[in-house]
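Quick note —
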Amino acid sequence: MVTRSANRRRYLDPASRNLVLIDRTAPYITDPTLIQSTDRLDSRDTATLANRFADGGTTSIDRYAAASNVSRTVAFIDESYFVVADEITDGLTHDIALPWRGRGTRTIRRADPNLAEVTWVSPSGVELDLAATSSDALTTTAIQGAYAPAWGVEESIEGIEISTRATETRVLTVLAPRSAGQTSGQLFASAGGRAASLTRSEGAIEDWIVSAPAGQSVTIGPMVTDARLAIVRVSQGVIQAFAVFSGQTLHYGGEMVFEASQPLTLSGTLDGAALLVTLSPDTTQNSPQLRLGRLPGIDLTKTYEARLEGRVLHGPEFQQSVTGLLFLGLASPGSLEVLPAGAGVTSTTGTTGTTASASTTVGSQNGTGSGSGGSGCQMREGDEQGTGWLWLVLGALGLALRPQALRRRRRRS
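Predicted structure written out below.
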């Protein structure tokens, strides 16, 4: 198809991909030692608790075109929308651009230096909202492209390019699909140091999303973190869930959420008096220490027990005090459950989106596993209903999201 197409040159041009461009190009990587895949996170339920708040991972490439390093973290939040955190570092100033393309009619709704907002409407009426911000001033430009949805079939597509000029920068992008007529979430950009931040609001639910420079603590509104990417979900100011990709510290509203002895990747969902945390296999090799703060619903005047992959933690492995919960030597990844001692806790939340309106969660389920609400775009069930053009938009730096990753995965029960 590409060989015979009149658009062959366009298809082969790196600028025609949804890739980070450094001085208008992206490299063909032939040395696998330059590529690191880290921060793998696969949130999952246990028999008694639910945690589906964040899935994702990071791809980092050294000597990426003229830049020293380019990394991209992709997170799938509450099985509802995507967050893409790009970080570009070098000692010299470069033209940095991020093209994004979607199928259907494109409308640039906002093109401010601190926030770009774009919507695509597919022929079937499914909509895709994009919002992007950066640690540097942005320029938003309309671009054109071509796409082959099937053999022998081509179509023109409309995109945008988000660009800046810097030596090092972070760009934070949110991609949220929705059904025709479904209300979109509101997004606000915040500045703080060299960080990029977005707040996504939908009904009573607020998601605070921050991308910080590696190892540098930043304060954005109520959040303090040093993570490559951190997300905190609150409902009426109360924490419901959180996720961190490569971070040692996360505070919210003046209270510690967690602190660790080394950068960790994890997600957690609060469920009444219990908590379920998923630990990434990429950050537990050195048996780190993890301290959780006084989280909502966790009554530290009562006795709690902790289980890592079903194994009860004893003695020095798990310590409780009035200031929080301490885990020593977490030697393996997986599900970390914290629940009242002797309590037979059964999840009452299902997905973390059940506290929001039905329009908040795409294809959500309730605690019994049957469909709930979910006027979402059903992007797991058909190409034209979202999967096809989400695929187009999410091709990125070698981090491949398989089609089955956009469908509901089998959860442990």
